[in-house]
Amino acid sequence: MAKEYRTIQEVAGPLMLVRGVTDVAYDELGEIELADGSRRRCRVLEIDDGNALVQLFESSTGINLESSKVRFLGRSMEIGVSEDMLSRVFDGLGRPIDGGPEILPEERRDVAGLPMNPAARSYPEEFIQTGVSAIDGLNTLVRGQKLPIFSGSGLPHAELAAQIARQAKVVGTDEPFAVVFAAMGITFEESNYFVESFKETGAIDRAVLFMNLANDPAVERIATPKMALTTAEFLAFEKGMHVLVILTDITNYADALREISAARKEVPGRRGYPGYMYTDLATMYERAGRQNGKNGSITMIPILTMPEDDKTHPIPDLTGYITEGQIILSRDLYRKKIEPPINVLPSLSRLKDKGIGEGKTRADHANTMNQLFSAYARGKDAKELMVILGEAALSDIDKLYAKFADEFEAVYVSQGFRTDRSIEETLNIGWDLLRILPRSELKRIRDEYLDKYYDKK
């Protein structure tokens, strides 16, 4: 029988100190029983000479140092996983909040997961269609990849996240596809938007949603992505599904880490964030990937808002080191009413070359992608020159490039949050735009593709 301790020494914010404990381990779960019989959960953060520093999952209000009791459960945080979790909505600790019944777990798993052996990883090389042209055509997402979205405060990253979650699919295969969606530190309105967005399109039938609200405790925010990734690992590697994990907002997660680190009086790192934040983010991001001999895979899209739109802020900076590229949302494009406002030039998918081409998307994909990048960059330069010197100073060909840049943003990038484009449609729209330019300017495309697609009309 578990020992009960009445030796609570101190409560400070989300932390509590219990003296004189024995046989208690780091990360072990505990249960606090209050004088009125109600119970709250906690987790061991530190053990030092019989003293346990524990972290509360709920508010510390009402905990009486003399009459409250603590007992430790002999296990770390777990979640019961099952295929029945699909189409369900849970809170940040994996408890159903959709009015449905409790899940009967097929097995219980530690949410910390197990690190994937690098030698057991398969190389990501299969195209995932998101239905968003600026991603599919230019910064392609590959199965098993980690591709974050860098946003700014007030930009529509929530709408883009919901759109990708609704539309994403592995093309050319009948293998099961699922979405695990984890939201951290969001408002009730945002939570409701995500749930309703999934329900109205029927996408919820293949999705598992974890919702952690802004008024939930910081420790729950830290547990939410781990709950989601443990569920994803079960669906991917036990049930053979292709799983897309969307985590929003990583900034709220990192702020919760900072809050708890400050409460523990740890030495702060850059901007007050704990020095171990890189390690913490890496243990989360690196749970994505493919394993040799397993059909399933985990592809991850973490979404974060850059404080003050600063790419050098610790959160986007460290995320960029760990992941394979980034999709960047632009405030200037948002002001022009372009939806989604994806700035394709600084965006990058380091694995895109592995997921495109003959048998995956289309043979002309790489050539048209390079030509669109080149033409758009030159068109942006021409527009900047036009602002300084006036339109009369531009050559005829520069005017065409400037026109191309405008059309590219209005037609290719701006497709709205309700349009689902196949990769064929995206490539054909690219060719329609390239016809604005004379054939002699398209130096990055092979003649065989120009003959087949440019001269089509």
TrEMBL record:
Family according to the record: Belongs to the ATPase alpha/beta chains family.
Keyword terms, alphabetized: ATP synthesis, Hydrogen ion transport, Ion transport, Transport
Residue intervals of the ATPase F1/V1/A1 complex alpha/beta subunit N-terminal domain: 8-74
Molecular function (Gene Ontology), one example: proton-transporting ATP synthase activity, rotational mechanism
Name of this protein: V-type ATP synthase beta chain
Domain called ATPase F1/V1/A1 complex alpha/beta subunit nucleotide-binding: residue spans: 131-349
BP GO terms, sorted: proton motive force-driven plasma membrane ATP synthesis
Domain ATP synthase A/B type C-terminal: 354-454
Functional note: Produces ATP from ADP in the presence of a proton gradient across the membrane. The V-type beta chain is a regulatory subunit.
Species of the source: Catonella morbi ATCC 51271
Domain of life from the UniProt record: Bacteria
Cited Gene3D superfamilies: 3.40.50.12240
Annotated Pfam families: ATP-synt_ab, ATP-synt_ab_N, ATP-synt_VA_C
